[in-house]
Amino acid sequence: MLTLLAAGVVGYLLGSIPFGLVLTRFAGYGDIRRIGSGNIGATNVLRTGSKGAAALTLLLDLAKGWAAVVIGEAWGADAALAAAGCVIIGHMFPVWLRLRGGKGVATALGVLIALAWPVALGAALVWLVTALLFRYSSLAALVASVAAAALAPFVVDPPTAAVIAGTALLIILRHHANIRRLIAGTESRISLTKG
Questions:
Q1: What is the SS3 assignment for 194?
Q2: Which of 16-30, 50-64, 108-122 has the highest mean pLDDT?
Q3: What's the confidence (pLDDT) of residue 158?
Q4: How far is CA 167 from CA 17, 38, 62, in A?
Q5: Does the pTM exceed 0.85?
Q6: Rounded to a whole number, what is the distance in angstroms from the first to the last CA of the chain?
């Protein structure tokens, strides 16, 4: 239990690092939470017009998901799963930001790469195709999350598949406002014309 607790704490602390907020402040864009959707993730960072900051945010958020699982794996398979779940929770609900974090998509991809790279590859391809076809990052994230949860039982053991399904559910719940905007036709589309 102590090992699982330690892995969970490490995962949470890694997940709670708000790279999007830190990078945009460092680059002189101010508080990313006051821009666009108010989210701290890469898609909202892109709305500053800085593709470089958005790409770095994506990479770092992905890396912390991967790192949490790798650190957990040093303590065993169960610890890896504990770290995987907690790094997502840390990103979504960071204590430093009054539990108002990101939506966990990039961090979840990092977790998937470490836990089950074939699932990560499938989810990434689904995200890319959906984003290119419809130009909605949120819709792409939702469809990719469902795809990952559906694919996981065919690739990994039941406990790992359960963590992946739980992560997908959290991502869907965190997109509740996006889902409403998608239904209403008011969701912002991906734009690569700035910067």
A1: coil
A2: 108-122
A3: 98
A4: 18, 22, 14
A5: yes
A6: 49
